Amino acid sequence: MARIVGIDIPREKRVEVALTYIYGIGLARAKTILASSGVNPDIRVKDLEDGDVQKLRAATEAFTLEGDLRRQEGMALKRLQDIGCLRGRRHRMSLPVRGQRTRTNARTRRGSRKTVAGRKK
Fold first, then answer.
1. In a domain, 49, yes or no
2. CA-based angle 88:89:91, to the nearest 5?
3. Between 20 and 30 A from 26 (CA), which of 35, 61, 80, 114?
4. What's the confidence (pLDDT) of residue 64?
5. What is the pLDDT of residue 33?
6. Degrees (nearest 5) of the Cα angle 99, 102, 104?
7. What secondary structure letter does DSSP report for 88?
């Protein structure tokens, strides 16, 4: 089993797709990692040799991934909330942050409907 950045990537998938299981690596970044390390993107993870896995580990060292990235994003949100800016307040109240309307939409962010008495038209 290939273990990269502390994550066991799935054995049966192609390397290109399996790298996307790591937080912080999407398909585009996976392609750049594979290009820089010289590993064939079409082979399966179970068919990787130890040298290829070492190359992938070395190529992913250049990026901020997994726990460090989660911590970095959490600190950015905490900074917004601490300074009390509009984006920080919207994050704290679990409302849409980027100017979307909330009267009719935003169900994902606000959660399921709560019935209020006397709200019929």
1. yes
2. 65
3. 80
4. 94
5. 94
6. 135
7. H
Cβ-based neighbours of 80, under 8 Å, separated by 6 or more: 87, 88, 91
Question: Is 117 within a domain?
Answer: no
78-104 residue pLDDT tens:
999 999 999 999 999 999 999 999 989
pLDDT beneath 70: ranges in the chain: 1, 119-121
Q: What does the pLDDT read at residue 121? A: 66
Q: Could you identify the residue written with the tokens 């009390």?
A: 84
- What letter does residue 44 receive in the DSSP assignment? B
Tell me, what's the pLDDT at 37?
93
**72 shares its domain with 55:** no
For residue 102, the enclosing domain spans: 67-110
- Does an H or E element contain 86, and which? helix 86-92
Exposure string (b/e) for 53-90, b if CB count within 10 Å is 16 or more?
A: bebbeebbeebebbeebeeeeeeeeeebeeeeeeebeb
Number of structural domains in the chain: 2
* Measured distance CA(76)–CA(67) in Å, rounded: 14
